[in-house]
Amino acid sequence: MDDRSWIYRDSPQGLRRMDYCNGVQGFINFATSIPRNFTGGDIRCPCRKCENKKYLHPDVVMMHLLHKGFMENYQCCYAHGEVFGSKRRMEEMVVGSTSSANNVHEAANDNTKPYRNMVMDAMRMNQGNGSQCSIVEEELNADAARFFDLLKDSDEPLWDGCTNHSKLSAVAQVFTIKSDHGLSEAGYDKIMEWARSILPEGNRLKENFYAAKSMMKPLSLRYQNIDNAEMTECMTCGHSRYKPRTGKGKTLVAYKKIRYFPITPRLQRLFMSPRTAEHMTWHQAHHAVDGVMVHPSDGKAWKHFNSVHPHFLAESRNVRLGLCTDGFNPFGSFAATYSCWLVQEARGEI
Questions:
Q1: CA atoms of 223 and 149, how far apart (whole Å)
Q2: What is the structure's pLDDT at 10?
Q3: Which of 22, 36, 277, 305 is 20 to 30 A from 342, comparing alpha carbons?
Q4: How many CA atoms lie within 13 A of 15 on its CB side?
Q5: Taking the complete model, does pTM exceed 0.90, yes or no?
């Protein structure tokens, strides 16, 4: 039997190894390729908690295996159609050689379904890297239910017979246009009203910005409000912090609000997608050319830090943050703006 040691081998700090993630994808491909494994669209879950006693959706089974691991003594997937000595290997269900990380990445992330991959990346992040998984116990919790609604939307055509747009892809692309061109909410609503009028009757395009934003909310990265309720006026000029009340409303509306965007979940999101994760570790994988600096990692400062902190160098996923003073000119009040980059080390687990 082929080596299945990856099933019970984890990286330090509780992180899953890449070969484990690739193997899980291979298992899902294998299990879903055999019709008799399905019961009402679900397959047995061989995670440590379910132990093949529960039938779950294949996407949920994948999440359980990524977070909880396989049950004991399941190197041969006998409950999913594999037998000892069979020529039909689980590894064969991963496109290309299992020793090629690039081929396995392509198999694990179907490029023909980018919006489904986007939902799965966000779903993996929101469930965390820990050994516990709250995605399915006896029934879906609210967060998991919203993700599965998005998975459905990523596969559901924009209208019956549409082949180039799904319900999710249409909203995501219009959101991109709104962001790129600074479109107002009122303008967005008018365009949606017009678009729905020319699409076939029964189309599933969201009718306005509010409905589209509610649909995309599970994919968003949350922010924190910075608020000091005790301060009602500016400490310098004494200007009122809140707008004058109109009507009978009791809610105080501030002129300005400060929001903080936590960096940790944003860095985690970059590692959730194989496409961006590859770029996050590129600095250690690329081969430098003597005398040519194509990346800060080719510079002396970067290499000096690596020599002083070898433990930081040992983990390629450790992040170095670049702070940019975009548009700031440190050399005088010249007409041309200047972008100054400073590379800093980000220590600690993300």
A1: 23
A2: 59
A3: 277
A4: 14
A5: no
